């Protein structure tokens, strides 16, 4: 299955899987089922309130206005839920998929509106054909809105971000790490992990020296690797408690 690259607010690049056709179809069927359930309860309500006779006496325009009013929630279902729940209908939430912008930003109401309008004129056959030939898993509405649907089932691991796991009783050693920015820490972490994997001690040593020169902190542990790991944890400690 194709992937899409999303850049987080911490400038970390993450590859997400495009939602598979099966998941999108199941989400679609769940949403259709909920719409049918809505109409069923609507029918029960009309019967309970004895409105059938009243409806039968409406003229053509009045009947059309009545039908448009009661069917409006079902008609606007996707637009309402995707707008309120950041790209997810109930079906999408159950299948753990969501609508996102191709450029990684959160889709806006206008984007959801464009997708909804396109769904009115787009037949299922056309949507399927466009989806199958699209490298980004887009149907016509997605192409028009600049969106796609991704799977949330692939978890984002903590090593993909600048975040570090910190014990509740953690005591920081280097308060001057606040001189660093999120981008600095991301570069430090990426460079450190890459150098560790390749056993590039020269790069790790240069990284330590650079950290010391920028922050003014001096390695207190005597171990370069431990120093850098502590710097990363301390940055998280101070920025999370600011």
Please state the CA-atom Rg, rounded to the nearest Å. 26 Å
Order of helices and strands: EEHHHHHEHHHEHHH
Distance between the termini: 41 Å
Which structural class should the secondary elements be placed in? mainly alpha
How is the biggest beta sheet arranged?
A: 2 strands, antiparallel
Low-confidence stretches: none
Sheet with most strands: strand arrangement: 1-2
> Helical residue percent?
55-70%
Number of DSSP strand runs: 4
Number of continuous helical runs: 11
What percent strand? Answer: 5-15%
- What kind of oligomer do you see? single chain
Mean pLDDT: 83
So what's the overall shape?
Answer: elongated
Structure description:
The protein is mainly α. 58% of the residues lie in helices and 8% in strands. β1 (3-7) and β2 form a beta hairpin. The longest helix has 28 residues, at 21-48. The radius of gyration is 26 Å and the shape is elongated. The two termini are 41 Å apart. The mean pLDDT is 83.
